[in-house]
Specification:
Largest sheet: 5 strands, mixed
Number of strands: 5
Number of helices: 13
Order of helices and strands: HHEHEHEEHEHHHHHHHH
Radius of gyration: 26 Å
Low-confidence stretches: 331-354
Strand content: 5-15%
Strand order of the largest sheet: 2-1-3-4-5
Distance between the termini: 17 Å
Helix content: 55-70%
Mean pLDDT: 89
Length: about 350
């Protein structure tokens, strides 16, 4: 046998295509993560200004015209309204101008990301310095001392996502990538649901009572975790049912390559480039990270949208998995199973080929 024949036997055309697919995923991984995270700059950060009427408009215009457009300023009536909007996650910070003194107050929420909170403080320090004023910072939703840089929510969601697509991948390939008939699809869906409940409570207990990394409702995080795991798992099962083993790679593309860097974890959404900022809230890691931070630090506010996003992924994955399973009859599965157990090299008459 020649060397070329050995290569053909060792690397089949199908294997070669899969290797090329893995190479493409590798390069996309590098491009996505470096593209999203290599140069974080705040852009159009929702920001409130509380100031006397005679200076409010001028100050808003000045902040709006800062180089690079870091802020999207808007006037609000008073400090109480500014705090309420921060807790509702409508804005990320506010400047409270003291009309009787020279020290203004910057309101931030490090629970939504300490990097962004620090950036807002630095921006306002520079702005007030040019006005001959100073600032003090008040954190209205501080991150836990055990939640370094506010990253625990993101890592929790990443863990849930990893569990979702790994469990679904195992369910899909444990029987040799057999197509799921209706019965098998129902069993896989039920298994995924049970796994999601266990994964959700496990993550919530570890991040909260065990490590103390996140405050907030353990029950709320449990429900969120179960939804994230199920949404990612059913999406993976649906993609595998649609495209075979390639679907596992597509799940990695959506969840890991596109979803993780755009989730607002390492850097909150206002610090990401436009593309990643646009897709992040629509993908499970981004929706999950936002919801986890809201539960932990913002009294559960502003989570309806992210929960609807996660529910949409879960429903779409479940419906697609069950619909695609109707293409395969139970006797097709039995035939595939008997073919899998037949000895390699068995001839049609039952004898073993030499």
């Amino acid at each position: 046998m020649t060397f070329v024949d050995e290569v053909k036997n060792a690397v089949t055309p199908r294997a070669a295509l899969l290797v090329l697919g893995v190479l493409a995923l590798q390069l996309l991984f590098i491009a996505s993560y470096v593209g999203a995270l290599h140069k974080p700059n705040p852009t159009d950060v929702p920001f409130a200004v509380v100031a006397p009427q005679q200076v409010s408009g001028q100050l808003v215009t000045r902040l709006d015209e800062l180089p690079g457009g870091p802020l999207d300023p808007r006037p609000v009536a008073d400090a109480a309204e500014a705090r309420e909007q921060i807790m509702n996650r409508d804005i990320d910070g506010a400047l409270i101008v003291d009309p009787t003194g020279t020290t203004d107050t910057v309101l931030v929420a490090s629970g939504g990301g300490t990097v962004l909170a620090d950036s807002l403080t630095r921006i306002m320090e520079k702005v007030d310095a040019t006005r001959g004023r100073t600032v003090r910072t008040v954190d209205v939703a501080p991150a836990s001392p055990d939640d370094f840089d506010g990253l625990s929510s993101f890592y929790l969601v990443v863990g849930w996502c990893v569990g979702g697509y790994l469990c679904a991948s195992i369910l899909a390939i444990s029987a040799g990538t057999k197509p799921a008939n209706r019965q098998r699809a129902l069993i896989r869906t039920a298994t995924m649901a049970l796994y999601s409940v266990a994964g959700g409570i496990g993550g919530a207990v570890i991040i909260g009572p065990v490590l103390g990394a996140l405050p907030g409702s353990v029950w709320g995080l449990w429900g969120l975790g179960a939804l994230i795991v199920f949404a990612v798992g059913m999406t993976t099962l649906a993609l595998e049912a649609l495209t075979g083993i390639i679907g596992i790679g597509l799940a990695v593309l959506i969840i890991v390559i596109a979803g993780n860097p755009s989730a607002g974890g390492a850097f909150p959404l206002p610090m990401l480039p436009d593309f990643w900022r646009a897709i992040g809230p629509a993908l499970p890691p981004g929706a999950g990270t936002w919801a986890a931070r809201s539960i932990a630090y913002f009294k559960g506010n502003a989570i309806t949208g992210p929960l609807l996003v996660l529910s949409a992924w879960a429903v779409a994955g479940t419906v697609l998995t069950l619909l695609l399973s109707m293409r395969h009859r139970p006797d097709d599965a039995a035939g595939a199973a008997s073919a899998d157990t037949a000895p390699t090299g068995t001839a049609p008459g039952g004898s073993t080929a030499a």
